[in-house]
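Minimal example, chain plus fe (ii) ion.
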Amino acid sequence: MTAIDDTTTDLPFYMKGNYAPVAEEVEAVDLDIVGALPPELSGRFFRNGANPSGEPPAHWFDGDGMLHGIRLRDGRAEWYRNRWVRTKLLAGEERFDPETFEFDLSAGRANTHVIRHAGRILAVEEGSFPMEVSPDLETLGSVDFGGVLDTPFTAHPHVCAETGEMHFFGYELVSEPHATYYVADASGQITHRQPINVPSPVMMHDFAISRNHAIFLDLPVVFDIDLAMTGGMPFEWKPSNGSRIGLLDRRNVGSSTPAQPRWFDIDSCYVFHILNAWEEDDGNVVVLDAGRHSSMWDGSPDAFEPCYLWRWRFDLRTGAVTETQLDDVEHAFPRIDDRRTGLANRYGWAVTNRPGETSSLDAATGVVKYDVVNDSKSFHDFGPGRSTSEPVFVPASDGAGEDEGWIMSFVYDPATNSSEFTVLDATDMAAEPVATVALPQRVPNGFHGSWFAD
Ligand SMILES: [Fe+2]
């Protein structure tokens, strides 16, 4: 494979380098492995991302969803394949009806994350309904939970480690309520739905759960209809909107008169991604760890302030909030052992850059492992020029300890314009990968992924 031709400088950044889409859907079987795949890894690693099928979209986030998947079993890499999600938009249909001013929520990009709940694999993007795909990456169709879902569906639902419930929300820009909170039980049926009163149409990319709370982010990236009408980025940085975090008591879920969140004002910032949340002091303190940007898109859709790990502590007795920067290493795509969702975690993993390199994902050369209990960290560096996708933690067994398992990602090498699937030992970040699997084509910079064990 040859290096990418980057001389076409009039293209936006997300059409160049390893942000550029791939043109083909391919498949390869019985892939070559360097090292040894742990034999207990039996399942599928899927990752989603924007892969425009035609003309460049107005923003990186608006490209057609493409899934890249690899199937592992018995120490073998049985197959790799990539598939666009067959959305209405990919087929050329419109999502907005100019006569009724309504959006077709079954028409989205399905490009941001891929998750599994109650046996269904869902490709999700925050402006529309989920798209169900098969274990072989074939698109099965739009999902509206029997008609109960009537808003967009977040790209970041969270499954409670204790109940198996999937907690999620949808945010709406042009009509109120601007957010709606849902709970689906472990069988995949929506059992709770309630509006969340958010004053302005803000971008809410993620949220969190703790044992007793659902946690909402009302932060000042605000939708602007005039910007939207220009066809460009429809959000602006508007710190006058305020920054606040809402804690909704999950014990109130199911009430005929569900309560609204209790809102806590915080310093102006933006958060795309939560690391985790949990409770301390007999549930009187809620702790939230997340990636904090001091601002977002301030004056330009390309203005992207670096992201650092911060902690907020909300004291439910006094209403006090403390805000603390936990670390000074820039990161993106923070993940935990999902078995700790809503419970105190010790470890987290995220993409990071070599010090002094830009915040472009092309420079995402490594993975940082945070130990938030001992206030320490370690790194894996994939080598000069190489870049990694989001690190996904996979436990070695059901009973394994919090970091006893593997970190999976796709790693791109610009020198050969090729990608590998890589497995790291999550307990020993500095060690060489335990396995790398050669892939038949590069995997572009993308968004989020998951491991689906058999
Ligand atoms: Fe995300």
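The first helix runs from residue 225 to 229. The chain has a mean pLDDT of 94.
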